[in-house]
Amino acid sequence: MAQTRRQFRQTIRQLRQQLSDEEQRQAAEQLIQQCQSLPEIAASQHIALYLANDGEIDTMPLISWLWQQGKQVYLPVLHPFSEGHLLFLHFDANTPMTANKFRIQEPKLDQTKVKPVNQLDLVFTPLVGFDSQGHRLGMGGGYYDRTFANWFATGIGPTPIGLAHNCQHVEQLPTENWDVPLPKIVTPQRIWQWELLN
């Protein structure tokens, strides 16, 4: 099972890394068009995203659009003391940035900018792959699984929505018994949505 998940991870990462600059640009624009119809965005003021890495769909155009809508945007920061956990810090055009241990840009840690997860309205999550049942395959670190443990258990807290390129969809992923599907995943071509039983 673990080997199969590794194989899926490697194959899908290669697919998205092979997208051209023009394909990436078009995907980012189409993603905004899809997100404009999301009722979750209209109902939310405090929205967490992430900065693209490793061929992920570029989120900066979406972030800029959210700023134009007057939304407050937050980015994940690796927790300095609690291994495997995330903090979310307010992000705007003037936020000082730094590279974390994965060489991903994140806001420089400032305790006054931290937003507790339960005070976020909506969290857009990265993923490596997803299937037709809403199962999400991450990078394997479990950061977002831990972040959403309470939501998955009780349905209380910010709504998680996945973002992905069209090529990151597969019909069925190998799953573990602790995997919990996402309620919604947005790609440039469509919005995938599932009714989840909490």
Write up what this structure looks like:
The chain has 198 residues and is an alpha/beta fold. The protein has one domain: 3-Layer(aba) Sandwich (Rossmann fold), CATH 3.40.50.10420. The chain is 28% helix and 22% strand. The protein contains 6 helices and 12 strands. Strands 3-2-1-6-9-11-12 form a 7-stranded mixed sheet. The protein has a 3-stranded mixed sheet with strand order 8-7-10, covered by helices on one side. Strand 11 and strand 12 (191-193) form a beta hairpin. Helix 2 (21-35) packs parallel to helix 4. The protein starts with a helix and ends in a 5-residue tail after the last strand. The model has no long low-confidence stretch (mean pLDDT 92). Keywords: ATP-binding, Ligase, Magnesium, Metal-binding, Nucleotide-binding. It comes from Vibrio xiamenensis. Its cofactor is Mg(2+). GO terms for molecular function: 5-formyltetrahydrofolate cyclo-ligase activity; ATP binding; metal ion binding. It holds the Pfam family 5-FTHF_cyc-lig.
Give a brief rundown of this model.
By secondary structure, this protein is of the alpha/beta class. 28% of the residues lie in helices and 22% in strands.
